């Protein structure tokens, strides 16, 4: 999919024009100071991204990363410009879909390149346009608004995962043990690990943005990145907490399965003992020896049956009292 979602020019915090990508460089020359261009792309092909590169003189290495996608979250400097990669998350039923967004940020431009699962940034653009006093601070504020939107979209995912963790806890202690419970626990841990890999690097990215003394990030905007960092840290802590809970659930599940297996083994052993005594007596009197005095006693047969049945009942009673049956 090759799409320019939006391409607009802003002057002193207000949108002044919709542009074509080929018109960007000329528009920047005409309008001069206090203006910037904000372009949103979704899965662009190489031709479109190279066109954007020529308009803003983007670094080749950053463009190559944006074309290939599947990059780890990071922040890189190219002169006074920044290239930032962040992971995005989206919930589809119970399935967590992860994508990524690449940001090219300069003093007078911001280009966002979305790949994979990601909500559109239309809401962010509208919110920024309704706060011209903040949008006037330039691309640094737009970058903050986008990062804040991305991080906040992780919270519904976490809430869904927390509900699934609680359901697993209930299932482990209230329902019979099964293999499916263990498999779902491992799948949840895997999803949490994927989220952690996406969120954790954002803490370092926001720390660096907060401390950078760059012209593109207005000094009044830098503290805003602390808020994004705080949200990322909270998400990271909740992920760690859920991973610990899942480890406890898994241990409890395995322990209960072990206890259940031990109970089954105790019952099998008890029944083997109950049946073993009469079997032993029957096997002794069933031997074909000629000299067996008991064979010539009139009451030998009913006595033998009584002993076998009686021994079985005695053993059954003993095991019932000890809790094995």
What does this protein look like?
- With 325 residues, the chain is α+β, with helices and mostly antiparallel strands.
- Among the domains are: 1-131, Beta Polymerase, domain 2; 258-322, no CATH class.
- 60% of the residues lie in helices and 18% in strands.
- It is built from ten helices and seven strands.
- The chain has helices spanning 24-31, 46-56, 60-68, 122-129, 132-135, 139-152, 154-174, 179-211, 222-285, 300-322; strands at residues 3-11, 14-18, 35-42, 74-78, 81-92, 95-106, 109-116.
- It has a seven-stranded mixed beta sheet, sandwiched between helices.
- A hairpin with a 2-residue loop joins strand 4 and strand 5 (81-92).
- Helix 8 (179-211) packs antiparallel against helix 9.
- The protein is rod-shaped and about 125 Å long.
- The two termini are 66 Å apart.
- The mean pLDDT is 81.
Index terms:
60% helix; 7 strands; Beta Polymerase, domain 2; 325 residues; rod-shaped; alpha+beta; 10 helices; seven-stranded mixed sheet
Q: Which CATH-level-2 architecture of the domain at 1-131?
A: 2-Layer Sandwich
Order of helices and strands: EEHEHHEEEEHHHHHHH
Extended strand count? 7
Give a quick account of the main beta sheet: strands, pairing sense, barrel closure: 7 strands, mixed
Q: Structural class from helices and strands?
A: alpha+beta
Report the CATH topology name of the domain at 1-131.
Answer: Beta Polymerase, domain 2
The number of helical elements comes to 10
* Strand arrangement across the biggest beta sheet: 2-1-3-7-6-5-4
CATH class of the domain at 1-131: Alpha Beta
Helix content: 55-70%
Mean pLDDT: 81
Percent of residues in beta strands: 15-25%
Which stretches are poorly predicted, pLDDT < 50 over at least 5 residues? none
The CATH superfamily of the domain at 1-131 bears the name CorA soluble domain-like
Radius of gyration (Å): 35 Å
Distance between the termini: 66 Å
Principal-axis shape equals rod-shaped
